[in-house]
Amino acid sequence: YVRFHLISPLIQQSAENIVLFDTFVNILSHNLGEPAYEADVAQLEYKLVAGEYGLIIRVKGFNHKLPLLFQLIIDYLSDFSFTPAVFEMITEQLKKTYYNILIKPETLAKDVRLLILEHGRWSMIDKYQTLMKGLSIEALSNFVRAFKSQLFVEGLVQGNFTS
């Protein structure tokens, strides 16, 4: 089991940064779909999660091939690229995801409660409005470049691994 948390102070600076971060993680997951398929067949699992303060990379499975899968994810992260068509597809999916969260009373109530309790939190309404105003491909490229330049990493490796 390998878990790394790539933390960046950039994410919580604005609602736009949070939306750009969600877009980035979704595009990264989309890009990894085909190359990581063989790892899935070999019973290796990975998950990319857009956490509040950074990207969480979780990888688990048999230890002898796990570093290869982790390296694949890191390679795609470092050489991040996307097409305008993928950008449009992911932003449309995010609009639907945000809207579905907003129409459920229990998730909206949780979001409002956390907004009251946590300092500097952006509401789902802020994120949805930011996304509806529109994002640019240049803004995403600039955000990803800045995100990669301001990272702090925490990691946990557990299981049958040598140092």
TrEMBL record:
Instruction: Please state every residue range assigned to the domain named Peptidase M16 middle/third.
Output: 1-129
Protein name according to UniProt = NRDC protein
Q: Which organism is it from?
A: Dasyornis broadbenti
Q: For this protein, what is any one GO molecular function term?
A: metal ion binding
InterPro entries the record matches: Metalloenz_LuxS/M16, Peptidase_M16, Peptidase_M16_M
Which keywords belong to this entry?
Answer: Metal-binding
Q: Output the lineage of the source organism.
A: Eukaryota, Metazoa, Chordata, Craniata, Vertebrata
